[in-house]
Q: What sequence folds into this?
């Protein structure tokens, strides 16, 4: 089915090219210039700020006056700071916990949503709603729900380490599972029906089909989703700021929060930039490792006959 | 933040899978070339903007000056002041008007800091005096108001000298008082106290005794907005003052980190720890906030019997629980601690807030003219009407017209008679140290560090 969809426009284009008399070899290949707006935007809003942050990480700057070069001081502090160690650990745990929670739920929901049950489309749309809300609104909503005296769960949820941590994982999952469900839904729909038909003939049941066909066929989707989740967890911020402010004490002060605190509460922009640069490096490195480990980069087709 | 970044990565990842089917992937060399070319242009652009920021202030032509103010309920007093001033002869003479920009409270400090380093810096801005404006003074961004005040009878005689001095840096004035006094007061729920036949405590032992009785009656003794941390700080401020006097913190404020090791600080941290373990703040205080109204609600609804808070608690309660504020809200001074050397009349809190002027303003006369309005009777009356006690020298005669004259008089006398008024530690230390101290206090209250660990950690702050 996918094969025909992809071929039709290409064939039509070719036909049209013949009609207008242009050489066939030049059609269907966008010129590199088309990438220019994207490259420019990316440069202005990502590359330049990153370069500036890297520069700032070698300076001492309180936001007023001029940054003063201090060499590797901020980076040395990064290695020595016990709060940094704690933050890094918290970030790793948060990333793993979020990944486990979101992947399991999103995978199951996505595979289910790819089917043809009644009301599936309506339910899928409902599931997607949390992703459309702003993170801030969601965090404020859950903060009210978790209020120890006037909320629906009148426990000291956000005042205990495990409670605050689980709340952050849960709220993050609540928000982002819909997005990953969508990815898995798309992935699951790409799996050729013939595989299931063949499996059914061979007598494979539902679970066997899931573990032997669906899951292996989704492995690249899992990689995509995992990279997004990992990078997302590394930059998880608003929810922590609003729900716990890194507390109780420093129990949920993950790296992005530590960066915010260093920058916008203690006005140590040099150190904040060092943490930011570290985050960029870590996120890029992790993505590359994930892609490499999963064989995602090899670009082998998983589809039969393609 | 996550969603946008996630989506971005998503598109790139998606495109690279599809690249085999669709267009030809661009060569690496092309990308590098295009990338560095655009980076050059972008870099130049960024450089130019950076240079531009050195120039002017937010005023533009100097006809309209911007004033940044902390945007809470009390801001209506400043708005009325601006409106009055803009119509006044003084404004016409100086040739311009003031525009008030209300910045939501929790974002005030970072917003001010970023604005002050940018071309859209305010001409006039609200602050807490002392350490809170030190970085601006060091960066030569403040107008030294000392001579202006000395040379102007309206300003010179307009304010209580102690309050004017409390916002000083190195004996020079950089600010004009513009809000009410903000001493920290021990508030209590009169009906809860009456029901259990209690009197507000005057000694620490009485306080512990009251705690025991309240807990027996299943009432949390104290409301505490622990998730904000600064309400927790108030306990340490008063305890250190009562145990060792104002000199203990003065030493720390003056830069001697060893001052954290003073026996008074150690003892205060131990007393706090005992209170927490004893359940004086209940079991959920670390997730209760003051800013979002959590702690005031716990207090007003009788779930907690007392609340150690700044004088603004009165207007907060008046806004949210007017009946409680009018009939059941009681107030008292912080009790003495046995064996302590601090005077029971000493006060901690914020003497007031100040307006300061950006040195780069294009119309200093207009700015100074506006600040003079804060010494006017009309301005002081507006503060009184809002339930605040002004720091102007004519405040005493206005107290009777306060919505709660009794409370206004208590506050005024408290500040007037105080041998020492210690500025809130976080404001006195400035944002850098203040924030790090908050972290340590948060850990102490959350049970993540012991009193001795707290003291050691504070000694190491810089």
A:
């Amino acid at each position: 089915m996918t094969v025909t969809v992809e071929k039709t426009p290409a064939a039509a284009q070719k036909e049209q090219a013949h009609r207008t008399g242009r050489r066939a070899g030049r059609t269907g290949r966008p010129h590199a210039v088309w990438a220019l707006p994207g490259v420019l935007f990316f440069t202005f809003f990502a590359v330049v700020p990153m370069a500036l942050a890297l520069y700032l990480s070698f300076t001492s700057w309180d936001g007023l006056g001029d940054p003063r070069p201090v060499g590797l001081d901020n980076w040395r502090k990064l290695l020595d700071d016990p709060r940094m160690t704690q933050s890094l650990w918290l970030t790793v745990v948060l990333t793993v916990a979020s990944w486990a929670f979101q992947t399991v739920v999103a995978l199951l929901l996505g595979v289910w949503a790819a089917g043809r049950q009644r009301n599936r489309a309506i339910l899928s749309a409902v599931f997607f709603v949390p992703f459309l809300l702003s993170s801030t609104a969601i965090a404020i909503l859950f903060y009210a729900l978790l209020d120890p005296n006037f909320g629906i769960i009148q426990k000291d949820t956000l005042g205990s380490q495990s409670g605050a941590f689980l709340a952050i994982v849960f709220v993050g999952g609540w928000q982002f599972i819909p997005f990953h469900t969508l990815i898995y839904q798309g992935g699951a729909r790409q799996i050729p029906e013939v595989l299931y038909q063949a499996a059914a003939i061979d007598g494979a049941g539902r679970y066997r089909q899931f573990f032997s066909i669906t899951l292996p066929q989704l492995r690249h989707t899992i990689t995509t989703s995992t990279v997004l989740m990992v990078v997302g967890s590394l930059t998880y911020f608003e929810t922590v700021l609003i729900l716990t402010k890194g507390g109780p004490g420093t129990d949920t002060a993950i790296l992005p929060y530590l960066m915010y605190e260093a920058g916008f509460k203690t006005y140590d922009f040099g150190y904040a930039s060092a943490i930011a640069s570290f985050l960029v490096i870590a996120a890029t490195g992790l993505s590359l490792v994930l892609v490499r480990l999963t064989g995602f980069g090899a670009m082998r087709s998983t589809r039969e006959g393609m | 933040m996550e969603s946008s970044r996630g989506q971005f990565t998503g598109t790139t990842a998606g495109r690279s899978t599809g690249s085999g089917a669709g267009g030809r992937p661009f060569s690496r060399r092309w990308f590098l070339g295009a990338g560095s070319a655009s980076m050059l242009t972008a870099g130049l652009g960024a450089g130019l903007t950076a240079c531009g920021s050195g120039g002017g202030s937010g005023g533009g032509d100097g006809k309209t000056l911007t004033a940044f103010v902390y945007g809470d309920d009390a801001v209506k007093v400043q708005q009325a002041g601006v409106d009055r001033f803009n119509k006044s002869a003084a404004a016409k003479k100086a040739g311009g008007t003031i525009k008030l920009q209300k910045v939501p409270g929790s974002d005030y400090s970072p917003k001010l800091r970023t604005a002050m380093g940018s071309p859209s810096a305010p001409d006039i801005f609200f602050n807490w005096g002392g350490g809170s404006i030190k970085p601006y003074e060091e960066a030569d961004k403040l107008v030294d108001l000392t001579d202006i005040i000395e040379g102007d009878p309206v300003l010179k005689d307009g304010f209580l000298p102690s309050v004017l001095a409390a916002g000083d840096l190195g004996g020079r004035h950089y600010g004009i008082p513009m809000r009410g006094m903000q001493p920290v007061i021990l508030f209590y729920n009169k009906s809860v106290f009456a029901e259990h036949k209690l009197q507000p405590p005057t000694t620490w032992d009485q306080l512990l005794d009251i705690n025991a009785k309240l807990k027996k009656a299943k009432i949390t003794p104290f409301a505490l907005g622990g998730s904000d941390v600064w309400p927790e700080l108030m306990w340490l401020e008063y305890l250190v003052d009562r145990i060792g006097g104002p000199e203990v913190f003065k030493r720390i404020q003056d830069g001697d980190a060893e001052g954290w090791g003073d026996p008074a600080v150690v003892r205060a941290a131990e007393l706090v720890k005992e209170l927490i373990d004893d359940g004086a703040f209940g079991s959920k205080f670390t997730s209760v906030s003051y800013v979002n109204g959590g702690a005031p609600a716990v207090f007003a609804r009788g779930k907690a019997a007392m609340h150690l808070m700044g004088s603004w608690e009165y207007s907060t309660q008046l806004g949210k629980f007017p009946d409680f504020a009018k009939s059941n809200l009681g107030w008292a001074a912080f009790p003495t601690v046995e064996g302590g050397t601090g005077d029971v009349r000493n006060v901690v809190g914020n003497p007031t807030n100040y307006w300061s002027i950006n040195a780069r303003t294009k119309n200093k006369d207009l700015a100074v003219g506006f600040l003079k309005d804060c010494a006017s009777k009309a301005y002081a009356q507006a503060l009184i009407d809002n339930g605040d006690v002004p720091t102007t020298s004519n405040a005493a005669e206005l107290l009777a017209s306060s919505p709660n004259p009794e409370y206004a008089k208590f506050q005024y006398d408290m500040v007037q008679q105080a041998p020492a008024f210690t500025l809130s530690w976080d404001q006195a230390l400035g944002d850098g140290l203040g924030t790090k101290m908050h972290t340590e206090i948060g850990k102490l209250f959350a049970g993540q560090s012991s009193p001795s660990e707290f003291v050691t950690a504070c000694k190491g702050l810089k």
Observations:
- Chain B touches chain A through 64 residues (CB under 8 Å).
